[in-house]
Specification:
Its main location: membrane. The chain is mainly beta. Helix content is about 5%, strand content about 60%. The longest helix has 14 residues, at about 40-55.
């Protein structure tokens, strides 16, 4: 059978996702059949075998590898791979960047079908909605073959769930765990489990498999924050206009369920149904206290300031459902594969306090700050007295976003002999239909004194509660969401409906993609070649509402484009353990839904609007590398990559040009001409099993990615009234990303220390002539530790510690000295017990 056909089948080579909890130390099984060994080295060895035989350049982490690391979710697990970094939210990894390209420029698939995004303005999928326990393997494919969707510039993150054929007979496991958050002194539970078995149907033996996995977690935690938002005045020294202290109190609940069926009636056919449901619920209370100085001040100066306090209290639920039905049939030298997929992602944020603002009754004298990096407030005691504040307004908000993806695809392959060499021709097509809707409603309760409320009823005294537990500085009293809700509950909310904010943010978008491809594979001695071309035709429709000088307008927009995407992949076997890889590929990524949004607001000579007529980003990608395998769990590799990107999308001010000639501001999104990204990926891992005991238990892994990017943006120059351009780095692109892991294991005990490093990167671009106010995220190093000990052959005790160095999140304005945002999380400790039966 042709090797590419073997790759397509992917039968029997994965360790079940739900061996996760026992994946720390080895068990014993015969390697003549299926490899049931689990442990640090076994996990890495399985991942490297898959990486080695892949047609594409890819990096893999197996489910048992996920469990070995103190990772809350799939995003944190995949960041251990070369060239991969994550954006963090409240200290947890969420969105994945690959080779320096932002999360919206990558795609995520579950069991071969695209995962839509529950966020209203993004394409990026926050992988923290996927509990690690439901994942069998994670792959980051960095060079796309023509039979793959071409919708990623950095890489495609492929998530595979479990199959009963990953185990021989009955398998089950269960885990109970408690985690402690050092920042809030909260302890939280987690439970997970799985079961799979094989059954005999008809005349077959063990030809029908059923596997199920369940994970339920509740995590209570919080963070302390201080931020300026970049409101610095650099024209006369380093003066600060305003800043705010924020305290977050969060309850995060994750639950996931996977139920999979496999049927293999004979040696020539197989059918499967993969289902996955994930629910992610965040309940967040944010207390804020801030000041705005009458005149921008230097550190150490004092003057008058306005003060305010604010409460945000919301519950947000994100759900992802994925259903994939498919099959494969071998007919002589022909292979037929068919698959139908349906995925739905939605985010529901029911009615909540979007912001309840209490303003100071008078200015606060002798106000100032110290420390430009982590500002501390200097102010009198009257700022901490709730009677000095009164309710100004309450924003009540609700939002619902729904994103669905339906697709069907067919792949046909024919193996044949070409001049004595194994060859395969493969062709197929895919139809994809995606719909994204957003519905937002806002009510703004203000001027409440006109509705019969007395000054005493609106005074903060009536809504305050005990002092907020805030570690960065003195904070003062918090606010009661219940009392604020009681105040506005008796009012006619129709009188406070904010039509502008509600209608302009609503949209309906559809994206239909028809694709087809033709590719040919050829093996000539030690050389493997894949050459082909993919066609993708896109039809885009958007409907929304605009507001022009107080009048609403219905907006409809259409766009259509066609892309031909050739590709070439080469793999040459230098010797039995060394291979060269090269690839020339093309890819296309559509702009984000926020960038394509049809809504607009035009008020006099100021305008802000989305741009549904944006062109897609297109990239020509060049990859060249070498891999040398060092036996079990060992590899050393190096890859060079270069990406030439056209139609890069950026924030733009079009005022003073074209239709916006007479406007002071016209903020939107525009296509740039081109951007370049180039870099080097290095990776090394090895099990030192040739050393004498106990050193033969040592395991080491390290990888580093060094990259550079260049992009040019243009916009109007407020100083001259003309236009100008400047060079920037690609947003979210870190010049250096690295991982280091040191491990040790024997038959009972396993220890692992890991560190993840990400250098600083451009987060947000300011106006074209104001580089000093660009915002950057500072470099970070996260250090984690895990340990496991088998009390019996099937019962394991685990301890894990996350962020043991208490790394913070810091965004700076222009240079590291000037705060935009600073946030602390503290470490987290976990203790768990797992029982597994093979």
């Amino acid at each position: 059978m042709h090797k590419h056909q073997l790759n397509a089948r992917r039968v029997g080579f994965h360790i079940s996702a739900l061996a996760l909890a026992v994946a720390i130390t080895p068990l014993w099984a015969s390697e003549a059949e299926h490899v049931n060994v689990v442990g640090q080295a076994a996990s890495l060895d399985q991942a490297l075998k898959e990486q080695r035989r892949a047609d594409q350049i890819e990096s893999v982490v197996h489910a048992d590898g996920v469990a070995q690391l103190p990772d809350q979710n799939a995003a944190e697990a995949v960041q251990r791979l070369p060239g991969v970094s994550v954006e963090r939210d409240q200290g947890e990894g969420r969105f994945v960047s690959v080779r320096g390209l932002g999360p919206d420029l990558n795609s995520v698939t579950i069991n071969g079908t695209l995962v839509p995004s529950p966020d209203s303005d993004r394409r990026a999928v926050a992988l923290d909605v996927l509990p690690a326990e439901l994942v069998q393997s994670l792959s980051v494919v960095k060079t796309l073959t023509p039979d793959m969707d071409a919708n990623s510039l950095g890489g495609t993150i492929e998530v595979e769930s479990l199959s009963a054929f990953d185990h021989k007979g009955l398998f089950y496991t269960g885990t109970g765990e408690a985690s402690y958050d050092d920042n809030t002194d909260q302890t939280s539970p987690k439970f997970s489990g799985a079961i799979s078995d094989l059954f005999s149907l008809g005349g077959g033996v063990d030809n029908f498999g059923v596997a199920a996995a369940l994970s339920v977690q509740q995590r209570d935690f919080g963070s302390d924050n201080v931020e300026t938002g970049g409101d610095w005045d650099f024209s006369d020294g380093d003066r600060l206009q305003q800043f705010e202290q924020r305290d977050y109190d969060i309850r995060r609940e994750r639950s996931g369920l996977g139920l999979n069926f496999d049927y293999r009636p004979d040696d020539y056919s197989s059918y499967y149904l993969r289902t996955l449901y994930s629910r992610f619920k965040d309940t967040e209370t944010r207390n804020a206290a801030g000041v705005e100085f009458a005149d921008a001040q230097l550190a150490g100066e004092q003057g008058e300031a306005e003060g305010w306090r604010e409460l945000k209290d919301r519950e947000e639920t994100q759900e992802i459902q994925s259903y994939v039905f498919g099959g494969e049939r071998f007919i002589g030298q022909w292979t037929l594969q068919a698959q139908a997929g349906y995925s739905k992602a939605n985010q529901d944020t029911p009615g909540h306090i979007g912001g309840a603002v209490f303003e100071g009754l008078d200015d606060f004298a002798d106000s100032g700050f110290s420390n430009t990096k982590k500002p501390r407030l200097t102010i009198g005691d009257d700022f901490y007295d709730p009677s000095n504040f009164a309710l100004d307004e309450v924003e009540w908000a609700e939002e619902n976003t729904e994103d669905t993806e339906k697709n069907i695809k067919l792949d046909i392959a024919r193996d044949y002999d070409l001049a004595g060499n194994a060859a395969q021709v493969k062709f197929g097509g895919k139809l994809s239909r995606r719909d994204k809707d957003n519905d937002t409603n806002i009510w703004t309760y203000e001027d409440l004194g006109d509705f019969g409320f007395s000054d005493a009823q609106l005074n903060m005294d009536a809504f305050s509660k005990g002092d907020v537990d805030y570690s960065l500085d003195r904070f003062g009293p918090g606010l009661s969401a219940g009392r604020i809700e009681d105040l506005i509950s008796g009012l006619d909310r129709n009188s406070f409906y904010n039509e502008e904010e509600s209608r302009v943010n609503d949209f309906k978008m559809s994206e239909d993609i028809d694709s087809a491809y033709l590719m040919h594979s050829l093996d000539i001695d030690d050389l493997s070649v894949i050459v082909g071309v993919r066609y993708e035709g896109t039809k885009f429709d958007a409907k929304g509402t605009g507001l022009r000088d107080g009048n609403y307008e219905a907006i409809k927009s259409k766009n259509e484009y066609h892309n031909w995407l050739p590709g070439l992949h080469l793999r040459y076997q230098l010797d039995k353990d060394t291979q060269l890889r090269g690839a020339i590929t093309h890819s296309v990524v559509r702009p984000t839904f926020g960038q394509l949004a049809p809504g607009f607001v035009i008020d006099g000579d100021e305008a802000s609007f989305g741009n549904p007529e944006l062109d897609p980003l297109e990239s020509r990608n060049f990859d060249l590398g070498i891999e040398h395998y060092l036996g079990r769990a060992g590899v050393v590799s190096a890859f060079l990559f270069y990406k030439d990107i056209d139609n890069f999308v950026y924030n733009a001010d079009l005022s003073g040009t074209g239709a916006w000639l007479d406007f002071a501001e016209a903020n939107t999104f525009a296509n740039g001409d081109s951007a370049d990204l180039y870099g080097l990926e290095l990776a090394y891992s090895q099990k030192f099993d040739w050393l004498p005991a106990p050193w033969n238990g040592l395991l080491m892994g390290a990888n580093a990615t060094f990259s550079r990017s260049e992009a040019t943006i243009t916009g109007s120059d407020a100083a001259t009234g003309g236009s100008r351009s400047r060079d920037i780095d690609l947003p979210f692109q870190s010049d250096t990303i690295g991982n280091l892991m040191l491990g040790w294991e024997d038959e009972k005990l396993s220890l692992r220390l890991s560190a993840n490093y990400k250098s600083d990167y451009l987060y947000e671009v300011a106006s074209i002539n104001d580089k000093a106010h660009d915002q950057h995220v500072d470099d970070q190093v996260f250090v984690d530790f895990s340990a496991g000990y088998f009390l019996t052959k099937g019962l394991q005790l685990r301890f894990e510690a996350q962020n043991i160095t208490d790394e913070n999140y810091y965004v700076y304005t222009g240079s590291r000295s000037y705060n935009a945002q600073y946030e602390e999380y503290g470490p987290t400790y976990k203790l768990g017990l797992t029982y597994t039966n093979f």
